[in-house]
Specification:
single chain, 139 residues, mainly alpha, 7 helices, flat
């Protein structure tokens, strides 16, 4: 459908059209191999991005160009994975409360036990507290 005809639609009509398009996309994915369907686009991206990056003037022989493009592609995705890991780690650290001093051994034991024993029941809370108090007494 032409975008100009969609621009005059209301928000409700646009949502309806998006739902129909989503159903069509899911039906296509159910009937056809999505890897084969997107192979042309992936190949074009590979050609345009990685091969142009390693050999913009096309001076290398084909085998060397493809080998280098493959290495550039692996580097690209490894770098993305590294940055993703770094961002997840920073987000996790930002969510964690700051402590002015390190945990004592009994506090660490409490943390471990509370993670392993669901503290929803009174028995679990008593068990955790008993283990921690016995630990403190043994020191």
């Amino acid at each position: 459908m032409d975008r100009s005809s969609i621009s005059g639609t209301t928000e409700r009509q646009r949502a309806h059209l998006q739902s129909i398009a989503a159903l069509g996309g899911l039906a296509r994915a159910a009937r056809h191999d999505s890897v084969a369907h997107t192979a042309t686009a992936r190949s074009a991206f590979h050609e345009r991005h990685f091969i142009d990056q390693v050999d913009p003037d096309r001076t290398l022989d084909e085998a060397d160009r493809l080998r280098r493009a493959s290495a550039a592609k692996r580097l690209h995705f490894a770098r993305m994975a590294f940055l993703s890991h770094k961002a997840r780690k920073a987000n996790a650290a930002a969510r964690r409360p700051l402590r002015s001093e390190p945990l004592t051994m009994s506090q660490s034991l409490q943390v471990v036990l509370r993670r392993r024993i669901p503290s929803t029941t009174r028995l679990a809370r008593e068990t955790t507290d008993d283990v921690v108090s016995r630990w403190d007494q043994s020191l």
